[in-house]
Amino acid sequence: MLDLIDRAMCSLQAALFGREVYSREHPAVAGHMECAHDLLTKAFHQIEQVTILGFEDRVVFKNDKLPSSSTLAEGLFRRLHHCGVEAVSFRRGLGCDEIRAMLDQLEDATKQPQKINGSAHIRFGWIGGTEPRGAAGEALPFKSAGNPRRQAGVLQHVWRDIRTGKPGQGELMTLVADICTSVSLSRGITIPLASLKTHDEYTFVHTINVALLSTSLAEEVGMRGDALLDLTVSAVLHDIGKRMIPKSVLNKAGKLTDDEWKLVQRHPEDGARLLFGAPDIPAVAPIVAFEHHMYPDGGYPRVAAGWKMHLASRIVQVADVFDAMRTDRPYRKGMSLQEALEILQKDAGTRYEHALLDAFTRRVAGNTQRELPEAASDITSIRTA
Is 60 among the domain residues? Predict the structure, then answer.
């Protein structure tokens, strides 16, 4: 896939530069443009959307540098940067006329600097947070516009489809690409997290926040390519077993009864059952769903002594506990950043690995941005289920 996308971008670049040497209608230019369209169409057989990020020194797809990264950074993406564009998203259904319109605008921009508009199947991410624009100039929601609340809405559909046995792989992978791109665009700046408006939305908003934090931590510890993508899918689905818990229990303000707590403790196993063998779900996803509440000194579900948790599970677990502590719930106020990190550090070396916590503390936790609750006065009544 990486080579396919690389060749498509190189063909786009050749078509753009060929216009400057020959003309817009020259057969060589048309050939490169058609080649780019054909290659992207092949990619669309596997994924619904192709999102390319262009930085000053590299061009990446799914967090991997393209083989022609340097050439593309100095060529096609330097031209895009001059138009204020940092990311380009091509969607299934893309037509040659849309590619031609994009190249027309890029060529015109070399004579008169200007922003360029997207189309039905091409969207641009703007530097500095400016909203992307559609063909008629209307604002469009770009993949990774830093809108975790919208992502949480998509997540509800994904969970529903998996539970009913009809997983919408296109919608799931679009959401995962959205999250990965959000993290890439936020690298070194801030990670956009959602705050709650109502307690009813906790499960989905919390899950998106966990996915953003998990992906960021995974990058920090060196995860790349398919492993990183599978990790993000696993984070998005780690709590899917909560679909089996009544909302009255999930959102209960008071103390849970013994029976209610037993019901909550079943959600890792229920989630693993839903995901195991589901079409196009990575094998690590049910593992993370099953393990994310385990600890060397207990947790749930209970397993045999000496159980070795998967790295993906340990990453998601840190992100899960951190966001749970930071968020207001019906039964307690969210904690300050310092309080949450202090509690995590108390369990360093026992519940959590030193290396993971160190990377999370230094490079992830402090880079989060959202409306923060007041510091909690009571930090003992933590329910992180």
Answer: yes
